[in-house]
Amino acid sequence: xxxxxxxxRREFTPREGTMSxxxxxxVAAQRDRYCEENGFTGTHIDAYNQIILxxxxxxxxxxxxxxxxxxxxxxxxxxLTTPIIENRLTGALTxxxxxxxxxxxxxxxxxxxxxRVQAIRTPKGAMIMLPGPADTxxxxxxxxxxxxxxxxxxxxxxxxxxxxxxxxxxx
Length: 171
Fold this sequence. Notes:
Shape: globular
Structural class: alpha+beta
Strand content: 15-25%
Number of helices: 4
Number of strands: 8
Order of helices and strands: HHEEEHEEEEEH
Radius of gyration: 16 Å
């Protein structure tokens, strides 16, 4: 399978941030940097040597690239900095945000299944896979910059507005 089938072409290029990683850095060292520099508290390393962050102090919205590209453009237009992870296998983007309020009871699917794309929020306690030093599947499209992340509600509003620009299935 060619790399072009795995990674859709993007209008944007990855933004350089503080998370450029030497391949010689250990997974444990990178996890420690995530905690110290980015406030990703509670991260751990699983049995497969992957860095895992439990949703709670940080939330995430996962979406296909067609929607994620629109969200990314709008975040940039509003001068909002937030880490975005690209899954190179699926093409999905994961936008990290500040924690959702404890009272937020929104569905995991953020809008009707009639749309041809779906945005999925992470429920509290869900695993968010962070890129590791030798990770070839997950990469930072936009690296974390300190603890800068938009409020969850702002990211949801941008995602919903971006989805409205995409036509529903069958239209």
